[in-house]
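pipeline/complex-builder :: batch 7 item 3
reading input block
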Amino acid sequence: MPVEKPWASDDNIALFTDLYELTMLQAYWREGMTDEAVFSLFVRRLPETRNFLLACGLADVLAYLDGVRFSDASLRYLAALGGFEAKFLAWLADFRFTGDVWAVPEGTPVFANEPILEIAAPLPEAQLVETFVMNQIHLATVLASKAARVVAAAQGRPVVDFGPRRMHGTDAAIKGARAFHIAGVAATSNVLAGRLLGLPVTGTMAHSYIQAHDDEAQAFRAFAALYPETVLLVDTYDTLAGVDRAIALARELGDGFKIRALRLDSGDLAGLAVETRRRLDSAGLQRVEIFASGGLDENAIAALVAKGAPIDGFGVGTGMGVAEDAPGLDIAYKLCAYAGKGRLKLSHGKPILPGRKQVFRAGTDNGATGDVIARAEENLPGRALLAPVMRKGKTCPGAVPDLPESRARAAREIAALPDAARGLEPAASPYPVAVSPTLAEYRRAVAKSVGG
Amino acid sequence: MPVEKPWASDDNIALFTDLYELTMLQAYWREGMTDEAVFSLFVRRLPETRNFLLACGLADVLAYLDGVRFSDASLRYLAALGGFEAKFLAWLADFRFTGDVWAVPEGTPVFANEPILEIAAPLPEAQLVETFVMNQIHLATVLASKAARVVAAAQGRPVVDFGPRRMHGTDAAIKGARAFHIAGVAATSNVLAGRLLGLPVTGTMAHSYIQAHDDEAQAFRAFAALYPETVLLVDTYDTLAGVDRAIALARELGDGFKIRALRLDSGDLAGLAVETRRRLDSAGLQRVEIFASGGLDENAIAALVAKGAPIDGFGVGTGMGVAEDAPGLDIAYKLCAYAGKGRLKLSHGKPILPGRKQVFRAGTDNGATGDVIARAEENLPGRALLAPVMRKGKTCPGAVPDLPESRARAAREIAALPDAARGLEPAASPYPVAVSPTLAEYRRAVAKSVGG
């Protein structure tokens, strides 16, 4: 029984939108409202456990904007759904994104209310893309921001992404592996992410391999014969007995023993790591490393590091893979200008800064001292964070640097943040973000014009 | 600049696996370990804020098992990655899933340690599929379980899925819409989920539509002219002024005013709903409903319902879409038999029940009173929850009922749970789940055989 697999693809991605976007599009089309709109994507508030967010996901947004089309099958579905005129569907058949986009580069730390990207395009175009653009930036930013904390906690020890099995679907696992890489994660277990994105992939062995053999020593021997430089998982039955079996294998194989590390996956990881290290060292196996996994997140890793647990690397799954403490951000994509006029809304607790904007980050090469959100045409001290990444629907050269460059940027930009912002604990005083006097005055004027 | 879109597809889904699965597969292949393995998928512990989980995701698992193949491009990638012999890759080219699967039907409430599905297949086949099978059951079960709570809180008022923009990627949004539907959500805003899965789609209007017009009254008038039975969003500038503008439009249009509802999206929803209801009623618009959205989850909805807020339906986004309070489950896929012998591991805090199993749910037609996890061949009082869904790699007829049936099952099975299990608060005493004496004895014997 072949079942159609409900996956997003080039053929159908134009329908990855909320129904109201299409309903509004038809209204804009009928009303002739095709002047330029500016939408701004930003996060209203940071989660309590984030001192900064690491912007990510732009590559997928640009690839989508470059190619979004309504296929015949998608148009037939909309016709069958009802509520759409044939002429409007014919107009949708020719839909292309022809707008401009400005964005902060992937791997840039951002704060509340700072635009991550802004889109200027004919209103229907900028409206339709809302759902996908938000979905992808949200996903990658949630995951990169979490991973940056895990990487910081590991203090230079490699962190490996073990998340695919419990991340939210295939798209999250693939895009997440990329976001983790930009945030400094060393490698992923996700083979498809390796193929599609060129990420380094890695892996050890599972309990099932040990269990399927009649005894643990035999399983170690067989795996080491095939993969001499592998990592042996030692906690299937009794962790320290597993360590002793690995040491026995080293005695058995002599110079042929090239195992890189032992993996601990359960129990008191700190205590087990100390005893494992002691036994390995006593056996002359100082070069064999200890790798830990099992329910880890930045707090667990920080605690292990603080205790001085002799652990050389960490495999991190669910906690990072679903960003367990902050899986959702208060992200918004809001109209801030239309037909040359600044726009905002006055809804309780949901402010908008009108018009196109820029963010200036002040500070020396060694450190960022604060940001100012300004009108796009202002020229203030500090680095301008938003740059053009798409012009008239075409991605600008260099808009999406290769992954090593984005990863290096993230490392550099995070290092430049004040200590408190880089720490795992909520910063006593948040990183300073101001609104420029010119933008504040413009906001007041626009608010007045809509009755605020 | 066309950028390859990193999406899962039929062509590449075989690589949606952890690297160690392939490493182990090559070892099994080399060692001739192709006897039948049984793997069991279950959740070790329920999150504190879940009294039950709603099993979901089987349809996608069966579709995958039915069709999983290594494409030439995938095999070329593995060859380039290194570490795999050409003969092993040739063997992978012929890889098919030929095993048997038993599962609880989608929409069945399950508890800690109860198998959601069990796979019996040659060891390499059952091993390779671990990552995808876990990923999809985890995703759908996380989201269905959350949605069941939101639906329960709404006490019969329709709940609409507004999640796509903040769910974790496209796959989560599509599969999530299906899981929400099974859990009782009335409709989704996700058009692609509508196309791919035949789900009911719905939507209202966004703030941007109001903002793009020079005044709110004009925006209401234009939208109502095109969509007479739509829902008007009234909180863009001042909620009660928006309500008054909708009432003014009703006076203006007379019998032509067919607006179904007003939507409140910010502020004190309970207070605003009361005043909105009062103004609508005073204007003779008793039939116009009130729809609420904005940061809602089951607790917020329960509070609104408890206050008697006159709200007729709820749009729920992020809280449900990322299952904010419990985005990850402690789900496991564990080897429990190989080559006719029960298998387990003794890792601290991570128990396994060996061998193929069955779950018997005792109780009358009106209520479930407790479950017993037993060996597969036992015949105990109560309904057996696991049924064959795939035989020799072919999906069994009826294994995946149509969506209305799964949705009806979920409603019926949840209704049959004890009150405490159905409640939003953590149950004072958890739903009773026992291990049968026969299974317990078998577990002791297997543990002894591996040194436990």
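note: Chain A has two domains: 18-144+329-449, 147-321.
queue -> next item
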